[in-house]
Here is the input.
Amino acid sequence: SDAESQKERVVTEEEWLQKWEMDNIGFHKEQGHPLLQKYLDVLLNGRSGLRIFFPLCGKAVEMKWLADMGHNVVGVEVSEQAVKEFFSEHSLPYCEEPVPEISGAKMFQSTSGNISLYCCSIYDLSSSIVGKFDGVWDRGALVAVNPCDRQRYASLMINLVEKNSSYLLVTVLYDANKHKGPPFYVPESEIKSLFG
Ligand code: SAH
Here is the structure.
């Protein structure tokens, strides 16, 4: 099947860091994602002051949007370059500190305190470190995860959300025999079995 043809494909953290170094980041959207605008009401569900998680965040401009609306944004990204570019491109002052629970990890926080970006692998996080979230914006995240790690990723995400949370997930449907990914092809049937 389509999904079958990508099952063994792996993109290493090193390769992701290289993409950032080479400015090979076609996935980054300067203008932000139209689907977040379209489904913002679903994400917020009339609530204010939410804690919103951005897995595999890159330098997604939507983090700034949501923070400006009064929400608390937490992201995780392996590339320190991406994290620093996020703050500098939005002229946001920040401080950086080690994360005691995760060796080698750093947390970059806007001086205003409402945007915290963890620079480490998402698999290093747990709810005891980052708490739980009311909302998730998953764009370029599940579809960027190596197919062999999807189960682990989904279990972690389920662990990181509150009971009454909203999770917006963007996926891409295409002929998986024509592109090796990422983004990987994640059929709807698999999303159902991963997230229930
Ligand atoms: N969500 C962002 C970026 C998508 S690209 C956007 O919408 O623009 C996927 C990002 O995940 C890359 O920036 C890559 O460096 C990062 N990444 C890949 N594996 C990761 C991991 N295990 N933990 C944290 N970040 C990771």
Remarks:
- Residues 161 and 172 are 23 Å apart (CA to CA).
- Strands lie at 51-54, 72-77, 94-98, 106-110, 115-119, 133-139, 161-170.
- The pocket of S-adenosyl-L-homocysteine is lined by residues 13, 16, 27-28, 56-58, 60, 76-79, 82, 121-123, 139-141, 144 (CB under 6 Å).
